[in-house]
Design a protein that fits this description.
The complex is a heterodimer of chains A (about 750) and B (about 260). In chain A, about 55% of the residues lie in helices and about 20% in strands. By secondary structure, chain A is of the alpha+beta class. Chain A has a five-stranded antiparallel beta sheet. Chain A has a five-stranded antiparallel beta sheet with strand order 7-6-10-9-8, with helices on both faces. In chain A, strand 18, helix 16 and strand 19 form a beta-alpha-beta unit. In chain A, helix 1 packs antiparallel against helix 9. The two termini of chain A are about 110 Å apart. Chain B has three domains: about 40 residues, no CATH class; about 120 residues, Carboxypeptidase-like, regulatory domain (Immunoglobulin-like); about 90 residues, Immunoglobulin-like, CATH 2.60.40.420. In chain B, the strands form six sheets. In chain B, strands 13-2-15-16 form a four-stranded antiparallel beta sheet, with no helix packed on it. In chain B, strands 14-1-17 form a three-stranded mixed beta sheet. The chains are: A alpha+beta (about 750), B alpha+beta (about 260). Chains A and B meet through helix 2 and helix 5 of A and strand 11 of B.
Chain lengths: ~750, ~260
């Protein structure tokens, strides 16, 4: 079932319910109104009936009075009274006269009952005459209406009416006195029989059911016998009769009646006779509501139709765009294209709101995605850098080891060559070859030094870096490749050193990255196959620009984004420039990329210049002023070196300069020597086999021969290791890097001894 | 005089034409009252020596004097105004006291059997109560300008004089003692009582209610106080020669509906 259909059904149902509810309310209201109306009507009826009754009573009264004027009647009554039985026997003729007169009166007035009493209320005649003549002197003296009629002082028209039950019949009667010469000589009572016919007539006239009650007794009723019996048993009459209100509601066997009472006076025993008018509500209601029902049904039908139409219309206007929107969302889900937007400006407000919410959701989603992506990229970069630094660290360790291993034999080679070349009587051709060997050795030394430099800079430590020197070295690294490809790599930097605090390796990586990028760009397309690097110092900062004559960048703003690459898949990670960016930022600098107006790309790096610390910059032995190495050294020197070649070389050098030297291979031996005799100088390799390293030896000397501790010169093939460097810096001792030349060696010895002397 | 005032009062609404006639009526009324007033004590001329006398008074209960409703077919004849309340003085004239005794026996033969008159006037019989000695004749003259009828259903004298107009008079002789109620067949409100007595010892109280029997032979009497609406009151009384006996009566009308 579609939403629209449900909406239509729901709307129709709601309308149906509300229509039914309103109909129920309306019917209640109609019922109430009708009830009130009926009650009013009945009250009106009651009034009318009362008025009619009064009038008819009045008429009865007057006609009765007229009838009592009958002289014969009076004469008969008067004479009968004066000749009452106690005197001279009954005057039956007079009674007969009275009876005749009474019959005549009754017939003339068309009444059902006529009664005459004497002045004491004793019955004289009844018409129609009952079978037995009233010889037993029946008295009506206590009958309220007779008494009232006789009490002519208190005589009033209304109160002389009542109800008389006689021989099983009920009569509504009026009673008047028969007045003669101002004296009541008797009463005349005229009555109308209240029987079924009478009640029926009443019912027809008043259009109400009629119940005649006497006291709490039901004398007659036009109601159906069953409900009539219920009437007598129910207590409604007492309530109805005692109630002052002229209208009352009575429920008889689920049927509601509006009741009104009509007093008929009292009977012989003084019980109130009442005519109760009952009007069933249902009959009038059904008649009243039938027409309304028809009209309402039509209205309801119309309302249902309208509701259905309306619901259909609403479903059209809201649900269709909604369904389109749902379809759109489905499309987005299927295609995964989150940038799609729903075009539904002509839709209803609800759908527009929905669409706006969707927009917001999508934007926040995209924002979130972007952030996630950025985080992921940053994480990747971090991992990459970690990997790289790890790589570099292991490389450094390897290089350090390798350099050490190379340096030891190299030291032997270089030293021995030096010693050979010192010989004055060398064949010139041999000298030439030896010198060539020395030259090549120097190349090996440079190479190893460079390797060690790389190895030393693995920890991201900030040191004072000569930027110009670094640039030169970096350019030197790549110059060969450029030349091979036919490109030109120019460096325009002053020869003066420019020192800034930084990580040399990282900075070199930055420069290398930029040079490599330029190289790749030139390989792609070279308008001007050259790369120019300029370094210029200005106002506390140094600006380094890299310019190439390549094709330039597609989007200079994006080049520093992670994984942005224009290279073919597999050729570039897209990380180079972002790492570059991170490194520059790490050094407090800035990097910018732009396309040159004449073509090609330009990278501009700006670094803040910090004051250099010259004291920390040159821990190594300067080779500034070579002294006379041939001057004799008169000192006793302990040489600790596990490498035999180098120990032998040192012994040879020391012997050549006239020093007394003792060579040992381990730290333990050195301590034995030091305990055995005095030495002016200890030259020790830092790496020693066995339990005693150079450092421990130095500590021993500090403790046991404090005077000697200043005359310790270390020789090391490995300045790259962290612990070594830390130890050297902490001890403040001079050290000599392997491989060393004879001059370096001798000078270091002399400086150590001289330094002491001068200090002393 | 009260009657005069009453009639003078009612005269106002009558036509001038009837004025003279009315005056005549007044005089006649006065004359007849004067006659009836003289009727009471009528001692026989040959009264035995040593006669005593009887005097007394009669008072009427309120029920007999209270105002009543009058009902008339011809309101324009009797006046639209409601009838004034009858005074005790007027009603008391309807009381008759009469004596019965073996001493006097039914000596009606000796009594004057005069002709009495009961006039029909203003739709009334005048006088309303007429005590007579048996054997007397009552004349019923019609003084009203309308027809009247005189009839009676009473046992002592049943008669119907028929209708007759003004100026005509008919008479009836009453030989049997008893109460004779007289009516008019035309005017049902008219009624009168002729009390036919055995002897001439009867009296009507004066307006103050006093009555007197001046010369009575000594002996035992039964005195009856009679009113048409009340039960007759009978008492024994001893009359001694040369003595005056006093006897007072209070006549109530017993509560009619409650009575036996």
């Amino acid at each position: 079932m579609s939403l629209g259909a449900r909406l239509v059904v729901f709307g129709t149902l709601v309308t149906l319910v509300s229509v039914a509810g309103s109909f129920a309310l309306l019917s209640l209201e109609i019922r109430r109104q009708t009830r009130a109306h009926l009650a009013d009507l009945l009250a009106e009826n009651q009034k009318t009936v009362l008025a009619l009754q009064k009038r008819s009573f009045d008429e009865l009264l007057w006609t009765s009075r007229l009838m009592t004027q009958s002289p014969t009647l009076r004469a008969a009554m008067e004479t009968y009274e004066s000749e009452s039985p106690s005197h001279s026997g009954q005057r039956l003729d007079l009674l007969a006269t009275v009876q005749t007169e009474l019959d005549r009166i009754r017939q003339l007035l068309d009444k059902d009952l006529a009664v005459i009493t004497d002045s004491r209320g004793v019955l004289l005649a009844v018409s129609p005459a009952s079978g037995t003549p009233s010889t037993s002197a029946e008295s009506l003296a206590f009958t309220p209406f007779v008494r009232r009629a006789l009490e002519t002082d208190a005589f009033s028209g209304r109160s002389s009416f009542g109800v008389l039950r006689r021989e099983g019949e009920t009569y509504q009667i009026g009673c008047v006195p028969i007045v003669l010469q101002d004296f009541a000589i008797g009463t005349l009572t005229l009555g109308t029989r209240i029987d079924t016919a009478f009640l029926g007539e009443m019912r027809k006239t008043l259009q109400s059911d009629v119940v005649l009650t006497l006291g709490t007794q039901i004398l007659g009723s036009t109601l159906s016998p069953s409900s009539g019996s219920e009437v007598s048993s129910s207590e409604f009459l007492s309530g109805l009769l005692s109630g002052e209100a002229s209208r009352n509601l009575v429920t008889l066997r689920d049927e509601e009646f509006v009741g009104a009472t009509l007093s008929l006076g009292q009977d012989r025993e003084g019980l109130d006779a009442t005519l109760v008018l009952l009007r069933p509500l249902g009959r009038d209601l059904s008649a009243a509501s039938r027409s309304i029902l028809v009209a309402l049904s039509l209205c309801a039908l119309l309302a249902l139709l309208l509701a259905g139409l309306l619901a259909w219309r609403v479903s059209r206007s809201v649900l269709d765009p909604l369904e389109r929107f749902v379809a759109f969302v489905r499309t987005v889900a299927e295609t995964g294209d989150h940038s799609l937007r729903f075009q539904g400006s002509e839709s209803s407000a609800e759908v527009r709101t929905l669409n706006q919410a969707y927009h917001l959701l999508m934007e926040s989603l995209q924002e979130h995605e972007k952030r996630k992506l950025t985080q992921a990229r940053e994480e990747m970069v971090r991992v990459e850098r970690l990997k790289e630094s790890e790589k570099l660290a292991s490389l450094g360790r390897m290089l350090s080891g390798a350099a050490h291993e190379i340096n030891n034999p190299l030291t032997g080679v270089v030293g021995n060559l030096d010693i050979l070349l010192r010989s004055p009587d060398l064949d010139p051709s041999i000298r030439e070859r030896l010198e060539r060997m020395q030259k090549e050795s120097q190349r090996i030394i440079g190479l190893v030094r460079n390797l060690l430099k790389v190895a030393h800079r693995d920890t991201g430590q900030r040191t004072a870096v000569d930027l110009h020197q670094l640039l030169r070295e970096t350019v030197a690294l790549r110059r060969h490749d450029f030349a091979a490809a036919g490109f030109e790599l120019r460096l325009e930097a002053p020869a003066t050193p420019l020192t800034l605090q930084g990580n040399e390796l990282e900075l070199q990586q930055v420069f290398l990255n930029l040079i490599n990028n330029a190289y790749d760009a030139l390989k792609e397309f070279a308008r001007d196959p050259s790369v120019t690097i300029r370094a210029a110092q200005e106002e506390g900062q140094v600006v380094v620009t890299f310019e190439d004559g390549g094709p330039g960048m597609k989007d200079p703003r994006k080049v520093f984004d992670h994984f942005y690459t224009t290279k073919e898949v597999g050729k570039g990670t897209g990380l180079g420039l972002s790492i570059t960016h991170a490194i520059v930022q790490g050094h407090g600098g800035r990097i910018a990329a732009e396309n040159r107006s004449e073509g090609g790309a330009r990278f501009i790096l700006v670094f803040p210049v910090t004051s250099a610390d010259p004291a920390r910059s040159a821990p190594a032995i300067s080779r500034a002023q070579p002294q006379d190495s041939s001057a004799p050294l008169h000192a006793t020197i302990l040489v600790v070196e596990d490498e035999y070649t180098i120990l032998e070389l040192q012994m040879a050098i020391l012997a050549s300069v006239g020093a007394t030297a003792v060579g040992v291979a381990t730290g333990e031996e050195a301590i034995q020597q030091l305990q055995r005799r005095e030495y002016q100088l200890v030259i020790s390799d830092l790496r020693l086999p066995g339990g005693f390293s150079g450092q421990e030896l130095f500590r021993w000397i500090e403790r046991n021969r404090p005077a000697l501790s200043r005359r310790v010169l270390f020789v090391t093939g490995d300045s790259a290791s962290e612990s070594t460097r830390a130890f050297l810096e902490q001890s403040g001792r001079r050290y000599l890097m392997k491989p060393f030349s004879v001059e370096d060696y001798v000078q270091a010895i002399r400086e150590t001894l001289d330094g002491l002397r001068s200090a002393a | 005089m009260k009657s005069l005032i009453l009639l003078a009062h009612s005269r106002r609404i009558r036509s001038l034409r009837r004025f003279v006639g009315a005056l005549v009526v007044v005089f006649l009324t006065l004359a007849s009252e004067g006659v009836s007033g003289e009727l009471g004590p009528r001692p026989a001329a040959d009264a035995p020596p040593g006669a005593g006398s009887l005097r007394g008074s009669v008072t009427l209960g309120p029920r007999l004097t209270a105002r009543k409703m009058r009902f008339t077919l011809y309101p324009d004849l009797s006046g639209a105004a409601p009838p004034a309340s009858r005074s005790a003085g007027e009603e008391i004239r309807n009381v008759v006291l009469y004596l019965e005794s073996s001493a006097i026996g039914s000596s009606g033969q000796n009594a004057s059997t005069d002709s009495f008159q009961m006039e029909q006037k203003n739709e009334s019989f005048l006088p309303h109560i007429l005590p007579i000695v048996k054997g007397s004749t009552v004349v019923f003259p019609n003084s009203d300008p309308i027809y009247h009828n005189v009839f009676s259903l009473s046992k002592p004298a049943s008669f119907d004089l028929g209708r007759y107009p003004r100026g005509v008079s008919r008479s009836v002789r009453f030989d049997e003692p008893g109460v004779v109620k007289v009516f008019c067949h035309i005017h049902s409100d008219m009624s009168a009582v002729i009390l036919v007595l055995d002897n001439p010892y009867f009296a009507t109280p004066d307006a103050a209610g006093s009555f007197r029997f001046p010369e009575l032979p000594s002996g035992t009497y039964t005195i009856t106080a009679w009113h048409e609406r009340a039960r007759p009151i009978r008492r024994e009384v001893l009359i001694r020669a040369g003595q005056e006996t006093t006897m007072d009566f209070a006549i109530p009308l017993e509560d009619a509906p409650v009575g036996d």
